[in-house]
Specification:
Length: 183
């Protein structure tokens, strides 16, 4: 009986080792920077944002911050783009393009005076890009002060409560209205 117990115990131990050895291998993980870059290439900006945020918390690398600001602007999160742009322009490696990007984000937030100041930091005040952006801020401030002459309202027979219709030009001077909404 003694040899039988010894062999069965050995067989049990060998079986346990064989089955557990297979699960001991870990799957290799891609680096966070590579995953974020893949999201950026696929234009999955919303998916890239949390990864870039985590990476920039640990080390405020200017290139990662630029990518983060780009992602925010791509999903129209301009307040976050402004916050990130201010972090970028506070770094000594910031260049004129960083100031232009910050100015564009500020302009999208309707902070026209701040946008003009950011554009002025971009340097090259005679540059066409800078002058056009500053003129755009000036025009927006004038337009906001002017009273509206026209009133726009939805046409209740066309618009659904979800506003999910669209007008599409069609050959022969026709316009086709389409909607995915069915009642």
């Amino acid at each position: 009986m003694q040899p039988f117990l010894r062999y069965s115990f050995l067989l049990l131990c060998l079986t346990v080792v064989l089955f557990t050895a297979k699960t001991g291998y870990a799957q290799e993980q891609k680096p966070m920077s590579r995953v974020a870059a893949e999201h950026l290439v696929r234009e999955a900006d919303a998916a890239a944002i949390p990864l870039y945020e985590d990476m920039t918390k640990k080390k405020p690398d200017i290139n990662l911050l630029r990518k983060l600001a780009y992602c925010y602007a791509a999903i129209n999160a301009y307040e976050d783009a402004v916050r990130t742009g201010k972090r970028i322009t506070a770094l000594p490696q910031a260049n004129a393009t960083d100031w232009l990007v910050l100015g564009d984000a500020l302009k999208s937030c309707a902070k026209y005076e701040d946008a003009k100041a950011a554009y002025a930091h971009a340097g090259a005040d005679t540059s066409v890009k800078v002058q056009q952006r500053i003129a755009g801020c000036d025009s927006a401030m004038v337009w906001k002060k002017a009273t509206a002459v026209y009133r726009v309202s939805n046409y209740e027979y066309i618009n659904t409560p979800l506003s999910d219709w669209g007008a599409v030009p069609y050959p022969g001077n026709d316009i086709v209205f389409t909607s995915a909404y069915s009642r």
